[in-house]
Specification:
single chain, alpha+beta, GMP Synthetase, Chain A, domain 3, three-stranded mixed β-sheet, 35% helix
């Protein structure tokens, strides 16, 4: 496990980052790590994680026994942003009446 104290990069210091998904190539040589910062700007944090990827890869290789430790590529996971956008659309005054049950069995 990598903790905040392990990073020397000031862009990662004090940041809480959630790994939402990891996609590994079939040959286990490359992994794309999708992350969402709990606080802070993804435009700063994702490049900082990429700079620290060799360090994180080293930590991963000592924690998990694999024949090959994959190279890590970090990407921002915007699924929470998309869910929030969809939620705000559904709550919009023009859409909300279509989602309520008005007794005809066609509503939500």
């Amino acid at each position: 496990m990598v903790t905040q104290a392990d990073f020397r990069d000031p862009d990662l210091a004090g940041q809480s980052i959630t790994v939402t998904e990891v996609r590994v190539s079939p040959d286990m040589r490359n992994a794309t790590v999708f992350v969402t910062p709990l606080v802070g700007d993804a435009k700063t944090i994702v490049p900082a994680l990429q700079r620290a990827s060799s360090y994180i890869r080293g930590q991963l290789s000592s924690a998990v026994k694999l024949r090959h430790t994959p190279s890590l590529k970090f990407e921002y996971d915007d699924s929470f942003d998309q869910a929030e956008r969809i939620g705000s659309i559904l709550e919009h005054a023009d859409v909300a009446p279509d989602l309520t049950d008005d007794g005809d069995g066609n509503g939500a």
